[in-house]
Amino acid sequence: MDFQIALILGQDGITNGAIYALLALALVLVFAVTRVIFIPQGEFVAYGALTLAMIGNGVFPATAWLLLGAGVAVAALDGLGALRAGQARKLPSVFAVNIGYPLAVLALLRLLPLTELGLAVQILLTMLVVVPLGPMMYRIVFQPIAEATVLVLLIVSVASHVAMVGLGLLFFGAEGYRTPPLSDASFEVGPLTVSGQTIWVIAASVVLIVALALFFGRTIYGKALRATAINRNGARLMGIPPALAGKLTFLLAALIGVLSGVLISPITTIYYDSGFLIGLKGFVAAIIGGLASYPLAAFGAVLVGLLESFSSFWASAYKEVLVFTLIIPVLVWRSLTSHHVEEEE
Amino acid sequence: MATKNLSDRPVLRVEGLCVSYGKVEALTDASITVGEGQIVTVIGPNGAGKTTMLSAIMGLLPSRGRIEFDSVAMVAPEVETMVASGMNLVPEKRELFGEMSVEDNLVLGAFQRYRMGLRDHAQTMEEIFALFPRLRERRTQMAGTLSGGERQMLAVGRALMAKPKLLMLDEPSLGLAPLITREIFRIVTQLRSRGVSILLVEQNARAALQVADYAYVLETGGIAMEGPASELAGDRRVIDAYLGVGGKHQEMLAT
Fold first, then answer.
1. Is the pLDDT of residue A276 over 50?
2. 3-class SS of residue B10
3. Low-confidence ranges of chain B (pLDDT < 50)
4. First to last CA, chain A
5. How many angstroms separate the CA atoms of B20 and B51, rounded?
6. Which residue intervals define the domain ABC transporter in the entry (chain B) (predicted)?
7. Which DSSP string corresponds to A92-103?
8. Residue B108 and residue A220: Cβ atoms within 8 Å?
9. What residues form DSSP beta bridges with B199?
10. Do B128 and B47 fall within a single domain?
11. Fewer C-beta neighbours within 10 Å, C or N terminus of chain B?
12. Rounded to an integer, what distance in angstroms lies between the CA atom of residue B11 and that of residue B141?
């Protein structure tokens, strides 16, 4: 291996690492606020990428039907809840949001000339379809069992992942897709050719991470999410409803997932089940951060990306094995260095 | 048992409140009333059900019985709606956000108001800082690094950020040095003069009876006695059980 190959592998590794970093941050966030280990994170990547690919091909994306179905389910749950609490006047807004919105998106997708739209508009449409599935999933699947143990939440999380993969096969078929790159430009930096897509991926990841940091540091809703992660009871007493925190967290996780999908699909062919492996690599990175530290998770993500690209050069058959084996020394090291501290008072 | 605390404008009226943990009944048929601008205290020994009662009123625990807050009957109270309608609880454990700054803790106290479109938290925070100058000095410090007394101040300040009509304090003197306890009780009295009604749960019966207008004695899950605080403070049974004799030292600290 010469220096030039190392540079190319390094570039690949950092590009993928930037995407894993986003996913790792989403996983840490979801776990901190809701205690859910969010296995379906990867499915949002695949759904985002494939929905964009369908729209790009001028095909009506079947995920829009899922949006409508989930919306109807949420409307039924929330509607029943409102009736039981004797708040029938809330019904119109419940129906407008949960059924009216999906219908509006459906109409948009039917009426717009999908192939003639610019890539930016297609990405926006993709987000309109897939991102709301996050909070809807929280409402339907996780909110009713919000007080369950971490293990139960994990089992349900795995079940939702399996369901989403199955639906993915139904929606998109077994074929893989690539989407056009966000930029065709390429730059010569010394011996290295840097593509516009690489720059897009890294820049978008950095912007998103900074935006998240600002959201959590500056806005009251961001602070409320952090507060829920730090002290659930304290947050409840401030009138921060756990359900709101959960939905907001899942919204962010879904948004991050879809954006990652949009960023990665010009680099790799995405199949209906590709999300799982991508999500798992984000998970390895999140584990490096102990499912708690954002900077460590981001660092872990870059490490995972580099390890993946170099191992695909030396031992491509084992590249996934090598990446996931990384978890073992990390866990050993963490169990030796960290010790459980009881909450004071 | 109907309460005899005849205040002309009750903020909180609880009747026949029962709470059970599984088959064990922790609170049986408790009735209390807090009038507007009153400090009402509930005293009693460990395990009498004081914290249970506050948690049930706040909606943290399921309960049976009638809870009327600000002349509105609360059916199956939920924490969120209770906070929105102006009730706030400072729990025994404080439940601060340890890894966030004092200022952020305070801002979050106004979360429910912010959500309802009332964006006056900067002004409220100034009022809190005037009440607790110590918190202003520590505004950028992490809440987890504060001393016990400062934590209690922050917990009370954070609850006040919601501009509550009724503030419920669970053992505010727990684990605090006597001088700081005195400071906290001084502030409790000050709050009453601002029109905040207070429901105070205390083991430090002497200090509680001195600041309160009306008092209830809670024993093994039921209200055993009640009356104006000054009367209870002179009651033989209360003195024997909760105040002890010759507590000159305690008396000095409580003033």
1. yes
2. strand
3. 1
4. 57
5. 13
6. 12-245
7. HHHHIIIIIHHH
8. yes
9. B40, B168
10. no
11. C
12. 36
**Farthest-apart Cα atoms in chain B, separation:** 54
Q: What pLDDT, on the 0 to 100 scale, is given for residue B3?
A: 60
pTM of the model: 0.86
Considering only CB atoms, B79 lies closest to which of A86, A239, A345, namely A239
pLDDT digits (tens, 9 = 90+) for B61-100: 888 889 999 888 887 778 888 999 999 999 999 899 998 9
Report yes or no: A46 and A273 within 8 Å, Cβ to Cβ: yes
What pLDDT sits at residue B1? 46
Q: Supply the range of the domain harboring residue B155.
A: 96-163
Query: Cβ contact (<8 Å) for A238 and B83?
Result: yes
pLDDT digits (tens, 9 = 90+) for B92-118: 998 999 989 999 999 999 999 999 888
What per-residue confidence (pLDDT) applies to A157?
Answer: 96
Query: Is residue B91 a part of any domain in this protein?
Result: no
Domains of chain A and any CATH numbers: 3-55+120-331 (1.10.3470)
Largest pairwise CA distance in chain A: 72
Question: What is the Cα–Cα distance from A260 to A22, expressed in whole angstroms?
Answer: 7
CA atoms of A315 and B57, how far apart (whole Å): 64
Cα torsion angle, A83, A88, A93, A96, sign = positive
Q: Which two tokens stand for residue A109?
A: 């997708």
User: A270 and A172 in contact (C-beta within 8 Å)?
Assistant: no
From the centroid of its chain, how far is CA B53? 11
C-alpha separations of A202 from A197, B119, B149 in Å: 9, 37, 47
Q: Are B26 and B145 in the same domain?
A: no
The backbone torsions φ and ψ at residue B24, rounded to the nearest 5 degrees and listed phi first, read -85, 125
Residues of B within 8 A of A230 (CB-CB) are 97-100
Which two three-digit tokens encode residue B235?
Answer: 């009651």
